[in-house]
Amino acid sequence: MSFESLGLHADILRAISEKGYTTPTPIQLQAIPTILAGKDVMGAAQTGTGKTAGFTLPLLNRLMETRNSHGGKRQIRALVLTPTRELAAQVGESIALYGKHLPLRSTVIFGGVKINPQIQKLRQGVDILIATPGRLLDHVGQKTIDLTQIDILVLDEADRMLDMGFIHDIRQVLAIVPKEKQTLLFSATFSADIKTLANGLLKSPMLVEVARQNTTAENISQVVHPVDKKRKRELLSFLIGSNNWRQVLVFTRTKHCANKLTEQLNKDGITAAAIHGNKSQGARTKALANFKSNTIQVLVATDIAARGIDIDQLPHVVNFELPNVPEDYVHRIGRTGRAGSEGEAMSLVCVDELKLLKGIERLIKIDIPSMIIDGYTPDPTIKAEPIKNGRGGPRPQRKNNGQRTGGQKQNGHKPQGQPVANGKRKNQSSTNARTAKPKQRQSNNVNRPDNFGNC
């Protein structure tokens, strides 16, 4: 079936054709006609399935059909909520791409950047707003935004928004937008919390599901490399160098470890950059752009920062540390093997992480093959140590005027361990970083084990 058969606007079809796409993905085949019919949708789709276009294409089409129903003034009629800045930017790019021949205007707002330029964009008039919950409520608190004319509400990556503690912010937004609207909820996993949210939000939703829940794509090869934790960086450098990998996305549990690993990779002669919540938005954007253009070989990311990283044909994903939450493994490796391409996901697993590995295998219902790399056989005498959770605590709540409460200090600093509203945790060291030993002098010699046991 072609895009032409789905009943999309001619100018949208023109933009799709210019991008080189001819055949809808399974999620698009199911979602687009349902959304065009005006029905609420509960969509389950793994990353890399074309899910973003699955809701942006019909969203644009629906707005074109009703563009004269609100009078002459341009008002926000569609709101897309995303958990992270990177994902907001990705959705914004999709809407701009497919709507470039349409008389619709969109903008993206998120934290980490100045608010005044966003206010100016909003004053000029916007049809489609893509936002992170925290910055959206900042605008609500300053009365620089009007959400009373929303026709379509999209919650993208709803599972991640709940993981990051956005439920209170979401409820505040729901109290502002009209009750009569079309609501689209997309999630890679459907936990009990997601189902509870959907039951209170959606009206007789159509379930659009293209893969069994909590599964990994079949075109991603997965492998575990057992290794002592103090030799992980050494093994990673060996794998990148010996295989001549040119584009590798590496995941760590904490910002501290991401910074430390990036520093060591660069010392090893492997160009790398880190992307996480403590980085400025400019630094994050630059690191991602350099990675996409192959200016750097390795992008080291935490789970929160990695949402929204959309790179065509990314060949390699490495779990330098396994995630504490098994579902995050599915999201991580879903960065590769996108849109039908082949991908490779490997995990460097030390004895401390064997329980985490078992939890992941139970979730995805497969046993991941294990292969010891010559020269890196784990020391069987090393005993497992507890792994501290690198995530922060619950998000601070807000007053009705959009100001944060819940322990915020009078001087404006956030209490340690509390993430701010746009998903960026500020002035927070990870639990593991706070208990780390003093930093030891590192050698540039790749073959010398480093102190990554303290990440």
Description:
The chain has 455 residues and is α/β, with parallel strands linked by helices. The protein has 2 domains: 207 residues, P-loop containing nucleotide triphosphate hydrolases (Rossmann fold), CATH 3.40.50; 188 residues, Rossmann fold (3-Layer(aba) Sandwich). 35% of the residues lie in helices and 13% in strands. The strands form 2 sheets. A 7-stranded parallel sheet has the order 3-4-2-5-6-1-7, with helices on both faces. Strand 10, helix 12 and strand 11 form a beta-alpha-beta unit. Helix 2 runs parallel beside helix 3, helix 3 packs across helix 4 and helix 14 crosses helix 15. It is globular. The termini are far apart.
Element-level helix/strand string: HHEHEHEHEHEHHEHEEHEHEHEHEHEHH
Could you say how many structural domains there are in total? 2
Helicity level, as a percent range? Answer: 25-40%
The tally of strands reads 13
Short description:
This protein is an alpha/beta fold. Helix content is 35%, strand content 13%. It has 16 helices and 13 strands.
Spell out the blueprint of helices and strands.
Layout: H1 10-19, H2 26-36, E1 41-44, H3 51-65, E2 78-81, H4 85-98, E3 106-109, H5 116-123, E4 128-131, H6 133-141, E5 152-155, H7 158-163, H8 167-176, E6 182-187, H9 192-201, E7 206-209, E8 220-226, H10 232-243, E9 248-251, H11 255-267, E10 272-275, H12 281-292, E11 298-301, H13 303-306, E12 316-319, H14 326-333, E13 343-349, H15 354-364, H16 431-434
Parallel strand pairs: 1-6, 1-7, 2-4, 2-5, 3-4, 5-6, 8-13, 9-11, 9-12, 10-11, 12-13
Helix pairs in contact: 2-3, 3-4, 14-15
